[in-house]
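Can anyone check this?
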Amino acid sequence: MKNRTIQIDLVKLLLTLLRRAWIIVLCGIIGFALVYFRSTSNQTETYTASGTMYVYNGNPNMVNYQYASMSDLNSAVQLLDTYLVVVRSNKVMSAVAERLAPDYPGIQPGYIASTLSMGSVSETGVLQVRCVTDNAQKSADICNAVMDVAPAEIIRVVSAGGIEIIDYAEVPKVPDRQSPLRKSLIGALAGVVIAVLILTVLFLTNRRLMDAKELTDRYTPPLLSSIRRTKGKSEDASNYLLNEQSPMEVVESYSKLRMNLLYTMVNHPSKTVVITSAISGEGKSTIAANLAISCAMSGKKVLLIDGDMRRAQQQAIFKYSHKLPGLSEVLIGAAAWQKALFSTSWETMQILPAGQFPPNPGELLESPQMKAFLNEVSEKYDLILLDAPPINIASDPLALSHDAAGCLFITRQYFSDHREIRKALISAEMTGMSVLGFVFYGTDLPKTSYYNRKYYKDYYQKYDSRLQTGQDNTPAGDATGGNFK
């Protein structure tokens, strides 16, 4: 394995966000709708009245910007925070409530305080008092009452400087402008930001295999082929088999896998390849079956061994009885391998079933009988493909470390876990199992590949003899397995 620091791939993150753009848009719409509904359903007209007072710290007879020194202004600004506390005090609010009681019976100091907001104007000595209520006259009356009552209390408490009223509040003529649309747009933006943050966190914490480039970036074994995962009309395993309806892109992907695999085995004396994965469900049995078919199409004499004597899958793909004798019977001497072979419609391809499930499959694969069997069949076939259990689930594939040329490691997009891949590679390395290469099995392969480019579609059709003859020139089993002998 390559020892390198995994860095955040911003391009991949952007592509992930683009693929999940519908989630981002949906969250934006939900945010917009929620805020808009809340704004329009609870919206009441409000009126804001405001007045201003000047806070001074020097001679009260010189309350004039022409004569006020900079030190006086700085002192006045510093006093503003104190003034604000005093204005909101219960004593001032109670005095304001008493003044307003004749016109607004039952008005409470707490309510008055909740309608007020105060602050300096552009960090000057000018204090602005604002009052917001649902009645224009009430807003002005509260604001003016505060401006009449507060200065005396402020001067009494602070005992420094003074306050001069600049402008009393006027009755607002129009209600405050409340824009549900503007608030809703902010809600939509908040929804989008939340969605992007969640997707980014999921991206950063994701351990799933997202694309083939991750295999070449993170691990030493080469990528032998990327194969598009196509799904049949039903869950029948045979729907995944290469047949006359298979896209040429898929056929060529297996051809590339076949040629690259044979190239890696050129200098190795063994003709046996173990096909495995890190965990179950990554498509190893399907790829083993189709690779064997591809080899048979090319004229290679190939033997496909269902070496998973714990959970055999080839019987479901090729539609033969699970009661047939197979590898387990051969290894215990209960049957001759020549008699246990299952013939297919490809003359150069045969299958050895798993047989009855034994209690000790790992020991059988590591036995001298297995070594002798592989040596014997190697004289009859150009290639032996052994469909083995996943490495992280059973040690069976590792038992063949010294009898096979190596293993073909199957990975599946959005399913394989990098932690499981690393664990399996470490196990293979410790037992001396050579990893010949990876196969990337995915549904989302790059659209820039040769057979997906619109420019090349007319050209590849000229090379596809099936389109000229109306059928595949090479024998192939149908999707239901009915063409197998």
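Reply from J.R.: I decoded it. Residues 10-42+178-205 form one domain.
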